[in-house]
Amino acid sequence: MTHIITSLCVRDRGCIDVCPVECMIAGQPLNEWPWIYIDPDTCIDCGACVPECPFAAIFPEDEVPSAYTAKGGEYISNVGLTGHFEGTNHHGGPIVLDTTRQLEAGEVVDFTPDIQPNYDFFKTGPGYSAKDIDDGK
Ligand code: SF4
Ligand code: SF4
């Protein structure tokens, strides 16, 4: 199994530093790969990243919610969305995302479609080579 980052990720980057096997990679380019991605072949399911995420975006693969009830106000970031999000990450750097949408209170969201992109990122996407063009955003 692996852990999975869902579209609740807004690239705070707090999780990356704690991963003991360095298998969390910031997607690039942003409009195609807006999250941080976990290499499913390398993740050892230690769970260390989960409490580091201020947005509760990380789940064991078999616990990714199919019916997440939004508190309201949280952002999701996904390819094709057109909302704008600006914030500051764990290291004080800027976060600017243009692939976002803010959830409404009580809205129910299925995050299981977010599982496959984590595999695709490493199989057919940039994978670890994204580190070479990572600009910290
Ligand atoms: S800590 Fe959460 S929001 Fe931040 S990069 Fe990791 S998964 Fe994304
Ligand atoms: S569960 Fe552990 S090994 Fe897997 S991504 Fe999180 S910190 Fe890394």
Protein described:
The chain is 7% helix and 25% strand. The chain is mostly beta strands and 137 residues long. A 3-stranded antiparallel beta sheet has the order 6-8-7, with no helix packed on it. Strands 1-4 form a two-stranded antiparallel sheet. A hairpin with a 5-residue loop joins strand 7 and strand 8 (94-102). The N and C termini lie far apart (28 Å). The model has no long low-confidence stretch (mean pLDDT 96). Residues 5, 9-15, 36, 52-53, 55, 57-58 line the site of one iron/sulfur cluster.
Keywords:
137 residues, single chain, mainly beta, binds iron/sulfur cluster, two-stranded antiparallel sheet, 1 helix
What is the compact description of this entry?
With 137 residues, this protein is mostly beta strands.
